[in-house]
Amino acid sequence: MSNPVPPRKDPDQPWRTEGTPPDSTGPPSGRRKMPGGWIGLVVAVLVVFVIALLALSFFNEGTEPTISYTEFSKQVDNNNITKIYSKGDAIQGQLKTAQANPDGGGKYTKFKTQRPSFADDKLWQNLEKHQVTVTASPVVQQRSFLSNLLISLAPIVLLVVLWMFFARRLRTGLGGPGGMLGRKAPPKPVELQPGAQRTTFADVAGIDEVEGELNDIVDFLKNPDEYRKMGAKMPRGVLLAGAPGTGKTLLARAVAGEAGVPFFSASASEFIEMIVGVGASRVRELFAEARKVAPSIIFIDEIDTIGRSRAGGSAMGGHDEREQTLNQILTEMDGFSGFEGVIVIAATNRADILDPALTRPGRFDRIVNVAPPDRRGREAILRIHTREIPLSPEVDLAQVARTTPGMTGADLANLANEAALLAVKRKQAEVAPPDLSEALEKVQLGAERSLVMPYEERRRTAYHESGHALLGMLQPGADPVRKITIVPRGRALGVTLSTPDTDRYSYTEEYLRGRIIGALGGMAAEHVVYGVVTTGSENDLEQVTNVVRGMVARWGMSERVGRLSALPSDAQQAYGLAAAPATLDSIDHEMRRIVDECYEEACQKLRDHRDQLNALAEALLANETLEEAQAYRIAGVTRVKKEEV
Ligand SMILES: Nc1ncnc2c1ncn2[C@@H]1O[C@H](COP(=O)(O)OP(=O)(O)OP(=O)(O)O)[C@@H](O)[C@H]1O
Ligand SMILES: [Zn+2]
Description:
The protein is 47% helix and 12% strand. The chain is of the alpha/beta class. The strands form 3 sheets. It has a 6-stranded mixed β-sheet with strand order 6-8-9-10-7-11, with helices on both faces. The protein has a 4-stranded antiparallel β-sheet with strand order 1-13-12-14. Helix 1 runs antiparallel to helix 4 (140-173) and helix 16 (455-474) packs antiparallel against helix 17. Residues 1-14, 17-37, 171-187 and 312-317 have low confidence and may be disordered. The chain binds adenosine-5'-triphosphate and zinc ion. Zinc ion binds next to strand 1 and helix 16.
């Protein structure tokens, strides 16, 4: 489930700069697919249309004029009628000789008329007397009833078809089950983890403090009676907050596994179905199931999709549906007496935007932060995920842990798996260090792409990456450059990877400026060497913008904007806090000033060290990839290593 390390946006993450391929500047891909349902809709409309036309044609009784019944009787008496056709009291007929239409409009031979129901003339005898051919068909009313029915049904049919069509589209649009309306998703699976495959705390590493916090919940679930006797109430809900891949789902599973209780799992986004009421009823079902087998655990992933602060508004789902679902969860939790033994564990990576109603006492009143692991934690996680993988004796997991700051449990699990895949591909009996370093490369930089690039383009990429790398090396206190490559990877034409020697927890202003300078290094190199810039710096500029926005508007690093959290966070916005226009102007001004200064400095440094820049670019063109030591040697920069704590 884990994803390769996403492009780093957050300054807490390892730093990597990359060129962007030309295709990324085009219009956004991934357009919504045209649903095949449109064809169905068009067909349905056509069918209804044809039915209506047919029904109407039943009534279409030709273009002959309608004459009065008096006029008709007169023509019968005049012996001027050849034949008539009757349908109940409606009569169509033909004259022997044309007559002037008494109602005007020229002469007529064909006509129609209506026999009044109260007429008690001797029409039939009269017609017989004048030898008129009479044809009759069953009473008109029967037919007109049918056609009437069809016609009156048509709009209803049309509405039903439209309704079904839209309901279906909305469902599939949300990634819900694309079934017909009204079909409920199957109830959430009850996971009675069988003893052998139970997830326990032994499967979780690197987050011991979190395990500690969850321990008393395990204890409660194991012996609810003891707690009951003491009248002690347990927390009803625990909120696990942390970045994606830090092991929140794993932890919830492990709590259930340790306590040996059933585990119900649902993702909050599955509740939201656009059709108001469905989410709430699913929540009801889920809680009812869990109560039946209590003590048990309900795990709700991505709680922020329904638990966003109500004031903040949402991009997902109908507002009503979201709110109803959330209310239902809160109602169910309020309904707990505290002795029922159902504990709700929710997970989010946006704890900051949650509705305060969720975190009120008696609800998710215990918030546990799950942080990415430190060096020792990473080593322990690697051990867990290589339990089943034969490792060659040369593999040093401590060393791997040292080179992976910022990586989460999911990243590390992915790394171990990639290394094992490589070893299999190479028909080795064990995973060796080169497999691990190659897997790391793939996880950190993205998979290699086989693009054949023209020489000029490669040369430009070499200068771009060398610009990043050289400035990274020259900047005092910057994260060391680990690898430079001009092999296209993922979306990038080339990558320069920098990671810190040890875990970093906070950043100085100087360090952040260094980062901006390094990130602008690619563009600056193109500017200095070629005099023009390309589209290859899109991603770099994105990172620069993120860092500088933080400096100015979040971390109080600009005198002019001051020590304000000037750009409100989502949570602050929910309370109606927004920056004044004048503040926004200052923020904009300061962001530009800092970036301009950094760009100037980047260009100047590259001009001053042009020989080193050339040397790096040449080496990259020749070798495609440079490792840390090689790169520092070629650039002639001495690497100062930070001491491990
Ligand atoms: N602390 C850890 N110890 C061992 N393995 C871990 C740890 N953290 C993550 N993993 C591995 O990563 C996988 C994914 O983690 P998990 O799904 O629990 O993350 P998550 O925080 O729930 O992510 P998301 O927010 O994306 O749902 C786990 O199945 C496990 O293999
Ligand atoms: Zn770049």
